[in-house]
Predict the 3D structure of the following.
Amino acid sequence: MDPEIFDMPDADVAWCPGCGDFLILKSLKQALADLEINPLELVLVSGIGQAGKLPHYLKSNFYNGLHGRSLSPATAIKASNPQLVVIDVSGDGCMYGEGGNHFLHNIRRNPDITNLVHNNMVYGLTKGQASPTSQKDFKTPFQVEGVFEEPFNPLSVAIALGATFVARTFAGNTSQTTEIIKKAIKHRGYALVDIFQPCVTFNKFNTFQWFKDNTYQLDDSHDPTQIKLAFEKSLEGGDGKGKFPLGIFYIEQGKRTFEDNLPVYQEDKTPLFQRKVDKNKLKAFIESKRGM
């Protein structure tokens, strides 16, 4: 399938020239094309932020949620029609900051969705304040003395909570990003892909070259089925000494998804929207609740 099938040629792209988001969009389109996913069977869900604009530039169904709240509608959409491919697109501020609580409990539920997080270590939409993943001593117009909090580690948190697919990639490596996105989409269960993405306007420290110099690829000796090893690898980098690993950290196959556990799908796998409403049962239910 040609990735151009997902193009929106008349879209007014609001990203800054040189933004890493362009490369993520390119990688996602290629992944969707390689998997031959029909745009009509694809739903992108996003929150607020520069990352949240990505669905505006890709032909598919789209739901724009509130800031940090995109995982809830993504889970509901997948539960309503498990036949859809549902991809949540967010940024480090939206997902790990405002949406931190939703992030935690979404992992516990294990819905069969893919979560792509653009991690540029800064708030790009709101003009450059530190984000949850900003490195210590990073100076901004708002943190003029530098960030003093420890950066949030989404991979360690996800692995510790039992996320069934955890990966990290770098937007500048489009081929690896495409391949990991493909594996995340094909995975049955919640799949987190944290994507290092330079913000060329508001983060002059974590540049394309910085990410190249401060990352390395997990090799074939890494076994992604070993949770302890995955957790140890997730702790690397961010301390000013080591480099951040890139690749698939952890995979758990066979864990029941959120949809699997819903009573409505125990005997009948038909998506809810395809089922006929029994008006007599509905009327009886309403009548039984009168006066309560």
